Amino acid sequence: MAGQDQNQSNIKPWDGSAVFFELRPLDGPQAPMPDKLLALLRVVWEELHCAGALILNSHWEAEAALVAEIEKRVNAEVICCGPLIPSVKCSDRTTEDSGAIQWLDLQKAGSVIYIGFGSLVTPAPEQLREIAKALIILKKPFLWSLKPVFHEHLASELACKESRGKVCSWVPQQEVLMHKSVGLVLHHGGWGATQQTLTAGKPALVWPMASDEKMAAKYLVEKGAALMMEGTGVSAERLVQAEEIVKALVDVETTCKEGAESWGRKLRISLEDGGASQIELERLANLVTKVCCS
């Protein structure tokens, strides 16, 4: 939101280093930031002096250190009104024609692995085959949201009607994640999936593919809610073998369940009337009203 006088700003001129985020693996040297992303951050940084408020799709407690750092660097109000996720109560079942929810209703509580890589990027065919092999080895029910063009790369055991899982071209992801039958998630680390999974309180194996997804993975790992698979991406460093995927999923289930459930409870409470996120939304509404009436 605009409203600050440039002369009152304490934002330092861009020097190429004033960036809040670092693109780096959990361990190891810092990776160079892509030029296009660096250029975008530069524009955002240089225009911050015009902002009267910064609206973040996050929860203040979940990113307290980052919010505190931002507040020190800008003259704007910082409003954390997230997680901004679809309400399951408002879900339109008429649009859900994949049968995913009906299938989940038939499964045991906490027994299903949900796999979803988002709508933009999908692992290479040979990697999809390794993930499919891992699911066969695990012998657990699974729900996989995967574009039809990639179905041919799955093992025949997953495609047959007798399979213990279900492969869908699309699923209502928020409703799936909140379903009692889903106990474990494998996703790409997109911010939407990250917020939805954490709010649902489900432990995750994060498989970063591009953009800020490695940072999102680190965000979940630091909360004890996930583990991250290293060496993945659009230009993957390696082919992750099925046996490693199996071990990682088992480790997530045994080490991250408590952390995920704890954060899920916090975030769901924050979305209720009187919760932290609702209070932040009221702050935002009051600020917008004030600006519009001034």
Automatic annotation (TrEMBL):
Highest taxon in the source lineage: Eukaryota
InterPro entries per record: UDP_glucos_trans
Membrane-crossing segments per the record: none
MF (Gene Ontology): quercetin 3-O-glucosyltransferase activity; quercetin 7-O-glucosyltransferase activity
Swiss-Prot/TrEMBL keywords: Transferase
SUPFAM superfamilies: UDP-Glycosyltransferase/glycogen phosphorylase (SSF53756)
PANTHER family: GLUCOSYL/GLUCURONOSYL TRANSFERASES (PTHR11926), GLYCOSYLTRANSFERASE (PTHR11926:SF1392)
Family: Belongs to the UDP-glycosyltransferase family.
The protein, known as: Glucuronosyltransferase
Gene: RvY_19444-1
